[in-house]
């Protein structure tokens, strides 16, 4: 959480399907940031680095078995070209990530780390994956989106880029949002409510209409803790281990939510608070 986010970020994507980029990232906040030049994207078509007349990027696996494997010589040429172009553009080539189900599972800490670096290269696999020697030769860092198998690295690359870009300065409207969100403090997020205050017979929790910022904060923390404990035992045990003085904090939070709510609600029924 300590890294500072780069003011400007570049990503080079190596893919057999360059037309998939920027794809959804050309729209909405990421798209606007791309237009403004907060981040830049270069896509290189892996097929353009083939030298044979069939333009083949893959071949059968040594040792037999199903499927095809992406050739090391073709990928090597693509990676070298990506670096050359980055240097020519005045960028310092940074880490090279191969999207792969065998990799370290992407989390917010890694997203932040990547957002703090100025340049990233992403290699999208297809077929059965890529020749192992390229991973060794170029010290590729394998990153996975989760324990499932995609047909290619492109959707994973889009997700990773999306998560990074929204952290870049000026991309999200409300800078406050980032610190309170799921994973930022080791907890899942508290539940959200908006107008109308009663919907389908369900009322918004009273405390949120109280306008009492400190109580709202304590209630939200308590909710975030409950949800995390129930849904993600892995995050919960890390949170408990890293929390400075858990017992005192928890008692204070419980006491705050047990106190009767003050009637300081503003006419808009939203407690006048627009934070988070
Ligand atoms: N044979 C491989 C799966 C290949 S899937 C295996 O069993 O591990 C084809 C490509 O999709 C991979 O090379 C990788 O780039 C991408 N891919 C698949 N699942 C992924 C995941 N969970 N995270 C990131 N990339 C993934």
From TrEMBL:
Transmembrane segments: none annotated. It is an enzyme of class 2 (transferase). Residues 245-276 are annotated as: Disordered. Residues 246-255 have a biased composition (Basic residues). It is found in: Cytoplasm. The keyword Methyltransferase applies. NCBIfam families: PRK00026.1, trmD. This is tRNA (guanine-N(1)-)-methyltransferase. The gene is trmD.
């Amino acid at each position: 959480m300590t890294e500072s986010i780069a003011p400007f970020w570049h990503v080079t994507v190596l893919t057999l399907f360059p037309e998939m980029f920027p794809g959804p990232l050309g729209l909405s906040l990421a798209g606007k940031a791309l237009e403004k030049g907060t981040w830049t994207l270069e896509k290189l078509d892996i097929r353009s680095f083939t030298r044979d007349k069939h333009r083949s990027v893959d071949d059968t696996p040594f040792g037999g078995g199903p499927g095809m494997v992406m050739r090391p010589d073709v990928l090597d040429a693509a990676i070298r070209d990506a670096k050359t172009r980055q240097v020519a553009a005045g960028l310092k080539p940074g880490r090279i990530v191969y999207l792969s189900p065998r990799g370290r599972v992407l989390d917010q800490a890694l997203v932040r780390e990547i957002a703090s670096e100025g340049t990233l290269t992403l290699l999208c696999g297809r077929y059965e994956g890529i020749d192992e020697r390229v991973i060794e030769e170029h010290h590729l860092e394998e990153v996975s989106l989760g324990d499932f198998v995609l047909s290619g690295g492109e959707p994973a690359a889009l997700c990773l880029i999306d998560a990074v870009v929204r952290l870049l300065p000026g991309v999200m409207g409300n800078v406050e949002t980032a610190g309170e969100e799921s994973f930022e403090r080791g907890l899942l997020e508290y539940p959200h409510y908006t107008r109308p205050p009663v919907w389908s017979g369900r009322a918004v929790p009273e405390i949120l209409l109280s306008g009492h910022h400190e109580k709202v904060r304590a209630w939200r923390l308590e909710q975030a803790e409950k949800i995390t404990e129930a849904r993600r035992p892995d995050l919960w045990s890390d949170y408990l281990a890293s929390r400075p003085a858990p017992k005192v904090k928890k008692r204070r939070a419980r006491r705050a939510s047990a106190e009767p709510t003050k009637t300081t609600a503003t006419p808009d029924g939203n407690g006048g608070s627009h934070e988070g």
